[in-house]
Amino acid sequence: MIHTGRTQGWLKQPIDTLPTWATFHGVTFNGIKVGPLPGFEDRGSTVIADRELEGGKVEPLLVVPKELIISRQNVELFAKSDRHLREVLEATGDFGRTTRGAVLIFLLMQATICCPDIKDVGVLNPLTEYIKYLPDELLPTFWSEEEHELLTGTTLQPAVRAKLNSLLREFETVRTATENIDWCAKYWWDEDNGLVTFDDWMCVDAMYRSRALEFPGVGDCMCPCVDMANHASGDATAALYETDQDGDGLLLLREDKKIGKEGEITITYGDDKGACEKIFSYGFLEDSITSARVMFLNLDIPDDDPLRPAKIFVSTAAPGFRVFEKTGDVDWESDFIWLVVVNEEDGLDFKVRQTVDGKRKIQALWKDDELDDTSKLREYLHGDPLWDIYQLRATVLLQGRVETQIETLKEVGNPQKEASVREVPWILAERLRTLELELLERAMDAFENQKSRLLESAVVQQYLGIGGDGEGEEEVDFT
């Protein structure tokens, strides 16, 4: 195993040597330093004011030369002078050409270069040393099976399972693509002495996932030193990050902010991110968070739907729906639900058509109009006279799905803490269950109100045979 820091201390550099690295490589600190916040040393390192700072009256707090930003473009530049990195990127094909693929492969290469057992692979660069300053992040992908069980009924449990499966597929893709490269076969994949394991791939994923920021003109990347700043949302966010006209990364104090000496300089990782995503990507929840904010629940097409196989085949939408807070209320959105609630009698149809190269494909149709993108189905339904009917079907279906989620959470309750369960996963899982249960219960109220409103619709009443004398009307089992 390469040991990217989780199990071996040799890779780590003491944070108090970071200024030396920064100065040597052209990183400019202006009135700040990186280290433990006084009184909160157990939280690790962060960006701290080295003197009193006032927004609008200081130059950028940090200037990071563009060549130090770990982006897809810069990884490609490094590969021009590092044939080993270039070999892996080329071997992994499409994956190596994505931002995520390029960055993770680059990080794995830096860990390889750092390994004392490997002397003749890769080219040293400034970022080889920088990754030694990055702390281990206890993301849920590193939780134990017992800790994962604490997530039963939350939206984080399926997200973590899906992520682990995705990471395993990526790892196998990289291994299969590179096992015929001589040095990879020798140092990475040799059955007896190979150093790279799935745990290493999880480590480089955690490095990137917990520190990736979206910089203007650069896209998703890791920006050294800027990525040491902790998160704070809303008015508590002290600084902004952007690029200047030369492409260098900047950290800028907000104009309305004053930070005293030894005060923390925070940035936002995304104020709109829900509790689940913050734990998933960063392994923490702010103490001030009082709402799950947003949840994604999976949704399936009923087995007794005769169009189920065709719907699954043509669907271009994520199979689920989002429940979220909006100006104090709870709302929902989904492109997938509309494909679930319509049927052949409504106007949904499928045809098998032959392409110009002789292959056959399934074509979805809505009242004879081609439906190449099923996420656009809502637009068609919105203009249909039976729009209120489709909304009511969706509301009833989603209400049932939310009710099932609530029941699962309540069944789990508050389990006893096992000795093998660590404190951080225990606290985070407990908070997430509470926050998501509260949001789901509010969603149930919102669905009930929406259902009541739709039942007052003349279209719905006529469809259900409500309002007249009822004679001759066939009773409709709406559910």
Count of folded domains: 2
CATH topology of the largest domain: the name is set domain protein methyltransferase, domain 1
Structural class, please? alpha+beta
Q: Which CATH architecture of the largest domain?
A: Alpha-Beta Complex
Count of β-strands: 16
The CATH class of the largest domain turns out to be: Alpha Beta
- Rg from alpha-carbon coordinates: 27 Å
Number of helices: 17
- Taken as a percent bin, the fraction of beta residues is 5-15%
> What overall geometry do the principal axes of the alpha carbons give?
globular
Helix content: 40-55%
The CA-CA distance between the termini, in Å, is 55 Å
What is the average of the pLDDT values?
90
Q: Report the biggest beta sheet as strand number plus sense, adding barrel if it closes.
A: 4 strands, antiparallel
Strand order of the largest sheet: 1-5-9-8
The CATH superfamily label of the largest domain reads set domain protein methyltransferase, domain 1
Task: Show unreliable segments.
Answer: 5-10
Protein name: SET domain-containing protein
Organism: Macroventuria anomochaeta
How does this model look, in words?
The chain is an alpha+beta fold. It is built from 17 helices and 16 strands. The strands form six sheets. The chain has a four-stranded antiparallel sheet, with helices on one face. It has a three-stranded antiparallel sheet with strand order 11-12-13, covered by helices on one side.
